[in-house]
Structure formats: C-alpha cells, structure tokens
Amino acid sequence: MQYCRQCVYPAVHVNNLLDDEGICSACRVWEEMAAAHDDDFWRERYRRFLALLDQYRNTSGSNYDCLIPVSGGKDSYWQACLMKEHGMNPLLVTYHGNNYLPEGQGNLDRMRDVLGIDHVVFGPSVPTLKKLNRVGFTKMGDMNWHGHAGIKIWPVRAAVQFQIPLVVWGEITWSIAGMFSPDDYVEYNKRTVLEHDLRGYSWEDMVGGDQGLTPRELTWLRFPADEDLARVGVRGIYIGNYFKWDPNRHAKLMHEQFQFEFAREPFERTYRTMSNLDDMHENGIHDYLKFIKFGYGRASDHASKDVRDGYLTREQAVELVRQYDHVKPRRDLTRWLEYVGMSEDEFDRIADGFRNPRVWWIEDGQWWKDNLWGQPSSYGPVHLTDPDKIKPFERPNRQQRAA
Ligand SMILES: [Zn+2]
C-alpha cells in the first residue's frame, strides 16, 4: 500500500490519485484553494454567490426562496444560518434514516426553533429501512446505502413537490478525493449521484431477493422525472464553491451561537465528536466495512482533513489512525445486529467477502495488510471458507502479482 506523504490517505482511496511526488489529489486541490487564498479569489466567489441569490429570491413572497437539505449537523446549521443572514427564506428538508444519536436528534429538532425556519422531515417506514440495511450490507457491504440515496434523492423530490428551484447543498462531496478543481463550480447532478453516492445501484436493484422489498415500499427512492425537474428548473449548488469549508470552525461557531451539541460519548472509530450524529452507524459499523474493504477508515478521513486545515501534524494524524482505523466497534455492532436480526458470525462471513486483494492477504488463517507507519500486521481471523474465494488472498498469488 502507498500513502500520501502530506496527509494520511492511502492510494486505494476511491477516486484519489497519488502524483509523482507522492502527494494525493485531495491535498493538491486543497493547495489550489489555499494558494488562491487572497482576497480577490474569495471576493469574486462572494460576488457570484450574491448574484445567484438575487436570481432565485422570490420577491412576491408566494413561495420559499430555496430549499436546504439538512441532517441537523454543524454544517446544516451553518448553511441555514448563512442563507438567513443573506435575507433568504429557506425551507429545510431532512431525510430521516431512523438511526440518529439522541444528541443528533436534539440538534435536528431545535433547528426550527433557534433558527426560526420551516422544516419538513421525511422518514421511510422502519421495517422497510431494516430490510434496506440488510440488502445494502449483503449486496455491497454498505448498510447505509439507503441513507446515501435518501439524503441525495429525497430533497430533490421535495424541490419538485414544493416548486422551489434552488437547492443549496453544503460541502462539495467530491472534494474529499479532489475530483474537481475549484474553478469547475461543480453542481449537483444525477449522474454523479448514481455513480458515487448510490454506487451504481438504483431502487430497482433493491426489489425482491430474500428481503422481498416491493416497488411500493420504495417510491421515495425514485428520482423525479426529468420533465418535472425541468418544469420547476431545479438546480443544486454547493456552498463549498463560494465559502471556505472548515468543519471545525462551523462546529465551534454553531456551538457558541446555538448550543449545537457534540456527541456525548466518544465514537469507537474516530476521535472527532462533532460529525455524523445523524447516523450512529456511519462512524461505527458502516465505517468498519470501509476498513474491511480498503484497509483504512474514517479516522484517516478526519485526520487527513485536519492535517490540511492545520489542526493536526502528520505525526499526530498517524497516531490517530493507528489508534482508531482497525477497531471493530463492539457497542455499535451489537446494536446493528439486533436492529436487523443477524448473527455476528453471518456478519463476519459476509464482510470478509468484500475484502480487497490489493490491500489484504492471508497468512496462518489471519488477515494481514501493510500499515501507514511501516511494517505490516495482522487484523483478526479469516471467516471465508470457500477455497475459490480464499485463493486471491494467498501469499504466493500476491507475490506473483507483485512480480
Ligand atoms: Zn494527501
């Protein structure tokens, strides 16, 4: 495995590239933003932002000016606050995946009170969500597929329903991998949502199977028709194109201004306590699957961002990765297994089926991989039993491939 010399991202990170100097694309795009840190750069962006708001302001007062998809997190608060400060009358909309932490739920509920903005919350039926958790996990090793899909699709359905053309998203999702230059002014589009957030799967792929999901249960997972999007003129912009995106700063400001609450208990797999309160499994068992697949986890994501923003040194980041990335989150796993009715043995067997042979190999019945800090080490027993599935991970195969 190769790692970025500046942050702690591995080269196997999806959509990320290491250049000849060993620096990853996420760091390069960050540098591009940072290098352009002079006033002119941001003044021009702010001018564009104001022009955009004027274009969509509903001067007659007959409808909302924009729609903001919110999870109730620190960034949601910051976005909603920003739009209000600029004289906009937004409608907040939330996809509720039924796994909020109590403090995350509290933050969400308080938005319409402390911010004084109307709020629509949509939650699919809980039995349907449980089935989607199982299908997502067995099909693609991601029990939160429903969440990634719901968060990206439902607000756009709401935009059509409430006839609000401007949808205001927050962080540029792909900036985590450095897929776009700041000058691209990337906007929300169906293709990238399908390819990235939904991993190429749509609601049709969830129908049938051993969970027996029906089309009737999944109406909310359908994209609005192109004609309807065109009729309303729906357009999704990212605030990250117009303002410097600093999650640590947002959290601090929102806590001071609106008593935004952080996680009361530390997470098992990352050191940050201000992120992902809207889904307890996002930082837990969902993220553990990322470690199973690609050999790194959310502590690497958080630490990489915090190195770039100057909150951590690379040495501190390496230590945090060593401490958190491999942890099998006991508390979170127990809750999820109970939620969907699955045994830990079944979980481990299915999870092992998603290991990436570019990252993992098998030695003496144990999973091994290289580490950010040098020497390889082992990470628990192999649960695969099918010899065909074991073969790609055996040491001789690996050495042949390397040769
Ligand atoms: Zn990097």
What's the helical proportion of residues? 40-55%
Q: What is the mean predicted local confidence, pLDDT? A: 92
How many beta-strand runs?
8
Ligand kinds:
zinc ion
Total helical segments? 16
Spans with pLDDT under 50 lasting ≥5 residues? none
What general form does the structure show?
globular
Distance between the termini: 15 Å
* Series of secondary-structure elements, N-terminal to C-terminal: HHEHEHEHHEHHEHHHHHHEEEHH
Give Rg in angstroms: 22 Å
Main beta-sheet annotation: 3 strands, parallel
Structural class: mainly alpha
Strand share of the residues?
5-15%
In spatial order, strands of the major sheet run: 1-2-3
Question: Topology, pairings included?
Answer:
Elements: H1 25-35, H2 39-56, E1 66-69, H3 74-85, E2 90-95, H4 102-114, E3 118-122, H5 126-140, H6 145-161, E4 166-169, H7 190-197, H8 226-232, E5 235-238, H9 247-258, H10 285-294, H11 298-308, H12 314-324, H13 330-340, H14 344-352, E6 360-363, E7 366-371, E8 374-381, H15 387-390, H16 395-402
Parallel strand pairs: 1-2, 2-3, 4-5
Antiparallel strand pairs: 6-7, 7-8
Helix pairs in contact: 3-9, 11-12
The structure holds zinc ion (ZN).
In short:
With 403 residues, the chain is mainly alpha-helical.
Report on this structure.
With 403 residues, the chain is mostly helical. It has 16 helices and 8 strands. The strands form 3 sheets. The protein has a 3-stranded parallel beta sheet with strand order 1-2-3. α3 crosses α9 and α11 packs antiparallel against α12. It is globular and about 70 Å long. The chain starts with 24 loop residues before the first helix and ends with a helix. The chain binds zinc ion. The site of zinc ion has 8 residues, from α1.
